[in-house]
């Protein structure tokens, strides 16, 4: 199983493009999009402390269940629902690792992006954390054309013309009209 994790706030055309790439690279594998659900971490140090800071600074337009449903609609719209599954995943940490490792009773590879323009410290730390857990990880070079912050700002400004260039249609419809 190939597992691509993220908050997907919101799931945009860049994410969708990576899903298509993964399907092309691994046509015989199940691709799993794992939507991260932030959970309280009792003893935050090292990776967990960094994750707390990273995730606390983000503005999420949707809760994780809405995000999951929106991604499912995009996958159906793109006719990818037979190749790709979506699930919730507790935020990876030492406290949640037993739950995560038991969720997937299979050979798994975790996908992380590697921005070809700038170094993304957060992606590096996530990849290192999974690697320390004995997991297989894969880095895929991307060139970011879409930033979640830009999308969230466009949502706040109701700039639907700009959002149309960055979001799959089912997500844009949900933002504009509140319907799936």
What does this structure look like?
With 180 residues, the protein is α/β, with parallel strands linked by helices. It has a single domain (2-147), classed as 3-Layer(aba) Sandwich (Rossmann fold). Helices cover 46% and strands 18% of the residues. The protein has helices spanning 13-25, 47-56, 64-77, 97-103, 121-132, 148-157, 160-166, 169-177, and strands at residues 2-6, 31-37, 84-90, 109-115, 136-142. A 5-stranded parallel β-sheet has the order 3-2-1-4-5, sandwiched between helices. The longest helix is centred in the middle third of the chain and has 14 residues, at 64-77. It is globular, with a radius of gyration of 16 Å. The model has no long low-confidence stretch (mean pLDDT 89).
């Amino acid at each position: 199983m190939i597992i691509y994790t993220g908050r997907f706030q919101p799931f945009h055309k860049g994410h969708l493009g990576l899903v298509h790439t993964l399907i092309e690279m691994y046509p015989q594998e199940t691709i799993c999009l794992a939507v991260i659900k932030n959970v309280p971490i009792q003893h935050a140090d090292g990776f967990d402390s960094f994750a707390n800071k990273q995730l606390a600074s983000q503005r999420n337009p949707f809760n994780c269940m809405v995000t999951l449903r929106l991604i499912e609609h995009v996958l159906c719209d793109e006719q990818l629902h037979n190749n790709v599954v979506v699930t919730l995943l507790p935020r990876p940490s030492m406290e949640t690792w037993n739950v995560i490792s038991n969720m997937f009773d299979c050979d798994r590879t975790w996908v992380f992006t590697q921005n070809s323009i700038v170094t993304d410290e957060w992606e590096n730390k996530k990849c290192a954390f999974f690697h320390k857990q004995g997991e297989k990880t894969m880095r895929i070079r991307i060139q970011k054309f879409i930033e979640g912050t830009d999308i969230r700002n466009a949502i706040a400004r109701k700039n639907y013309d700009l959002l149309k260039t960055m979001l799959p249609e089912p997500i844009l419809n949900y933002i504009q009209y509140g319907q799936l």
